[in-house]
Design a protein that fits this description.
The protein folds into four domains: about 90 residues, Beta-clip-like; about 150 residues, no CATH class; about 120 residues, no CATH class; about 70 residues, Tetratricopeptide repeat domain (Serine Threonine Protein Phosphatase 5, Tetratricopeptide repeat), CATH 1.25.40. The longest helix is centred in the C-terminal third of the chain and has 22 residues. Helix 2 crosses helix 4. It contains 16 helices and 15 strands. The structure holds S-adenosylmethionine (SAM). GO terms for molecular function: zinc ion binding.
């Protein structure tokens, strides 16, 4: 048995060739919801960087950062992270320091990730950092690259990026073809590193986690504890089942999901993607379609081309195409005018107007309406309008229930937000219910021992005690 296979076997996993998918991971034992299937430190990672937010190279925190005084590119939240990153940064720093200021500005997180990957390999090859069965460059070399699927434009872009890496690291022997291929590997293997609330913090390459294939109806979920990637079972996984996670936002129609998956060069054939055509039409009519003329009916509409109308499949009422197109045009004009809005009070008014208009057009469970309401929720929280925010948070829940099969972290997090708002509004009994729902889901997806989960459990206990006190008073 190879060292990787031995390491996987100790975790109850087998590396297998899966017809039509390349390699994959198969459960060699039963996993229960909440069980950790596998976890891994990144082979290389880089924090995301925006004009307004910088992050620590070590833990991706954004508070209390100090810049490396030499290269002025790396940031650290304190000496512990600076120390843990030192072996790598010792090689990276002189290379970055010698870059011209305009070149420093071109250093995207992806370029930085590649620099760190090349340097980490060098550190392992020279014995500065030990290699292990699950942490070595051979695992990166074995990743799917899809080089033959790239179009010329993409290939040229990766080749130019490889040239930049060679220019930035003149003291390292760099194989341009290999680096070009590695850029392609990053595109279909790297994972976005997120915080507990699924907000992106950076990017990492986890060569063992990257063996896991995709499903739009996955049995596992990938979350992060700091930079460590943790795959947990969401559903019962039986011995012999393939471990599957989702690479993409699954709140989308099949067509949209397949579009997102083009980056990975495969067509998903999971059970959600190959449902019968009528089911497919129904899902599209709900997620991207229009609402019934009778606003009390939550039926979905099918288009009847001959009569140029949309007919509700529940109550039979029809809407004419002309009327639909007219409102759709108004919606897109209103949406376009929102792009320049920065003031939250003004934004809340404009988004409420947009929501009212969208309510006339879209199915109540449509993704368009959901996104508008999610935006309103954020704006109202920013404005400390807790009551308004709670209304919108609750409006999203039935749609989340439809889109994310439970237990899904997105649903758990949304219940958590409802609970926090209800707690602020002193709706103790409701807060207790929402925290309980959140904890039931998130203990499966996030585990029970992180500071984030401990905070949720302590809020739950506080709500339980307060509720008991109120009931008995
Ligand atoms: C992160 S890798 C997964 C491991 C990969 N199968 C391997 O052999 O290394 C992503 C690639 O795996 C393949 N893949 C992942 N999920 C798939 C699926 N559901 N159906 C077909 N191919 C899939 C695609 O080639 C995709 O670009």
């Amino acid at each position: 048995m190879e060292p990787l296979e031995r390491a996987l076997s100790a975790e109850g996993l087998t590396l297998s060739a899966i017809p039509g998918k390349g390699r994959g991971l198969i459960a060699d034992k039963n996993f229960f919801p909440g069980d950790v299937v596998i976890c891994q430190e990144p082979y290389a990672s880089s924090p995301s960087k925006t004009s307004t937010e910088l992050r620590c190279d070590g833990c991706f925190a954004s508070a209390g950062l100090k810049k490396c005084s030499q290269c002025r590119i790396a940031w650290y939240c304190g000496s512990a992270c600076q120390k843990s990153e030192w072996k790598l940064h010792q090689l990276e720093c002189p290379a970055l320091s010698s870059l011209r200021e305009d070149r420093k500005k071109m250093l995207t997180p992806t370029l930085r990730l590649m620099i760190r990957l090349v340097l980490r390999r060098k550190l392992q090859d020279t014995g500065v950092i030990p290699k292990t069965a699950t942490d070595n460059y051979d695992l990166v070399a074995a990743l799917a690259s899809h080089m033959s699927d790239l179009d010329e434009k993409q290939l040229l872009l990766y080749a130019q990026m490889a040239n930049l890496i060679k220019m930035i690291l003149p003291s390292v022997e760099v194989d341009l073809r290999e680096i070009t291929e590695n850029f392609s590997k990053l595109s279909c293997n790297a994972h976005s590193i997120c915080d507990d609330q699924l907000r992106p913090l950076g990017t990492g390459l986890y060569p063992v986690i990257s063996i896991i294939n995709h499903s739009c109806r996955p049995n596992s979920v990938l979350v992060f504890e700091g930079r460590i990637a943790v795959v947990r079972a969401m559903q019962p996984i039986h011995k012999g089942d393939e471990i599957l996670i989702s690479y993409i936002e699954i709140a989308a129609t099949t067509e949209t999901r397949q579009e997102y998956l083009k980056q990975y060069f495969f067509t998903c054939s999971c059970l959600r993607c190959i449902k019968n055509p009528l089911e497919e039409l129904k899902e599209n009519a709900i997620l991207e379609g229009y609402r019934c003329k009778d606003h009390k009916c939550i039926g979905y509409l099918f288009y009847e081309a001959k009569e140029k109308k949309f007919t509700c499949q529940v109550c039979g009422l029809s809407r004419d195409e002309y009327g639909i197109n007219r409102i759709a045009k108004e919606v897109s004009t209103k949406r376009a005018s929102l792009a320049s809005t920065v003031n939250p009070s003004e934004a809340s008014l404009l988004y409420r107007n947009l929501e009212l208009l969208e309510l006339k057009l879209f199915h109540p469970h449509s993704i368009n309406l959901l996104r508008t309401r999610e935006t309103l929720l954020k704006i109202l929280m920013e404005l400390n309008d807790w009551r308004g925010a709670l209304t919108y948070c609750w409006l999203t829940i039935p749609v989340y229930q439809r889109l994310y099969q439970s237990p899904h972290p997105m649903l758990g997090l949304q219940y958590y937000t409802c609970g926090k708002l209800e707690w602020i509004l002193e709706q103790t009994e409701n807060a207790l219910k929402s925290f309980t729902e959140a904890a039931e889901i998130l203990r499966i997806t996030h585990g029970i021992s992180t500071p984030f989960m401990k905070e949720l459990f302590s809020k739950l206990e506080e709500a339980r005690a307060e509720d008991y006190y109120k009931q008995s008073a």
